[in-house]
Write a structure and sequence with these properties.
Number of domains: 1
Strand content: 5-15%
CATH architecture: 3-Layer(aba) Sandwich
Largest sheet: 4 strands, parallel
Shape: globular
CATH topology: Rossmann fold
Distance between the termini: 26 Å
CATH class: Alpha Beta
Length: 371
């Protein structure tokens, strides 16, 4: 479950499952399985089969190559301070180039996440791939309209901890939670329909991204009855409540989907999960594995979340895998560590195909600890 998978022309093409009974992009549920246009994969946000956006061509773009070197060298940093220094340099370089070229670079990097994760998870396996695109192209296209400095400035206002949510915002919160419930119900149905045994979840909601998302999607609705300062505090409160509500919905969905093993990224905030405002990484279930990241020396990566809720750590620094155009690129994060564990789970299941998720989980953890 990730960004769309661009499978044509790379080894993922041999793994992806094509639904031959579904005609792509005709807006009809041809096989009457409850999923429209699920020719290849499914997008529970848009409630339609996976749609592949057009890719920017950056194959000869020297600025893109230089930017990636700057950005991912930051993940080799030892501390958050040195990381932010290096990350700021990569962002500063990006701000010096043409606006359209910058958008193309950000889009390419964003769309490569799914391929990169899938490439790690499926390497040297015979597993079938059912892409679940858990993303919104509309949100991803608008998130960059706010500068990183503005995002941090807005989200660092912690006064929301001291207040109650304005009653006038409760309908908006309820709407957001209803949307999450609907999407997760669709995911649950898809897992059951396709009999998916392992689901990699290299994503999760943190406070920053949730705050910015709400600012972009509901901020304009606050005009007229809240000034900018109080609106920011109220959005912070709503973000915290939304994350807690989403966590409960994830927990319920995962517990109901007991025939699937969920492999979940711990997150990249360098925090104890128990003390952080996360949603998905806080899930605890017999059929869920929470994964943190280590570097090449086996030390916990400085960015990785940690704590008793993390089940296992795996390599997550400068990991090479597929980009969206089929080339190779390096990425870092617990997003990369998670499919490493998924790959181990696939391998274990190929050897012992009758293991239930709650039986597979300790086997995978034991195998990881032996490495």
């Amino acid at each position: 479950m990730d960004m769309p998978i661009f499978y044509r022309g790379n080894f993922l093409e041999h793994h992806v499952v094509v639904n031959k009974f579904e005609i792509p992009n005709n807006g009809i549920d041809d096989d009457q399985n409850g999923f429209v246009d699920d020719h290849v994969g499914y997008n529970p946000i848009e409630n339609v089969g996976q749609q592949l956006p057009e890719l920017p061509d950056l194959s000869q773009n020297k600025n893109f190559v230089f930017y990636l070197k700057l950005k991912y060298s930051a993940f080799e940093a030892i501390t958050m301070v040195s990381y932010f220094d290096l990350a700021a340099k990569s962002q500063a370089f990006l701000d010096t180039i043409d606006k359209e070229e910058k958008k193309s670079i950000q889009k390419f990097e964003n769309l490569s996440h799914g391929n990169h994760v899938a490439g790690i998870a499926l390497k040297n396996t015979q597993a079938a791939l059912y892409p679940i695109s858990f993303e919104s192209e509309k949100f991803n296209s608008t998130i960059t309209e706010l500068s990183e400095e503005k995002q941090i400035e807005m989200a660092m206002n912690t006064k929301f901890r001291e207040i109650d949510l304005d009653p006038r915002l409760l309908p908006l919160l309820d709407k957001k939670l209803k949307e999450t419930r609907q999407r997760l119900n669709r995911v649950e149905s898809y897992l059951r329909e396709k009999k998916i045994q392992i689901l990699n979840m290299s994503f999760g909601g943190d406070f920053m991204s949730t705050f910015v998302g709400l600012s972009l999607s509901v901020g304009f609705q606050l005009e007229g009855f809240l000034d900018e300062k109080n609106a920011s505090i109220q959005i912070g409160k709503m973000a915290a409540l939304l994350l807690e509500g989403n966590r409960e919905l994830y927990q319920e969905m995962i517990e109901r989907s007991y025939e699937t093993l969920f492999v979940i990224a711990a997150g990249n905030d360098s925090k104890d999960i128990e003390l952080s405002m996360e949603d998905l990484p806080k899930v605890q279930a017999p059929n869920a594995i929470i994964v943190g990241a280590v570097n090449d020396y086996g030390e916990m990566a400085f960015f990785s979340n940690y704590g008793h809720q993390v089940d296992i750590f795996a390599p997550g620094v400068n990991i090479e895998s597929l980009a969206c155009d089929g080339s190779l690129m390096s990425m870092s994060g617990t997003s990369m560590a998670t499919p490493y564990v998924t790959n181990m789970a696939i391998t274990a299941l190929e050897r012992e195909p009758y293991l239930l998720p709650e039986e597979l989980k300790p086997v995978v953890i034991d195998l990881m600890e032996q490495r």
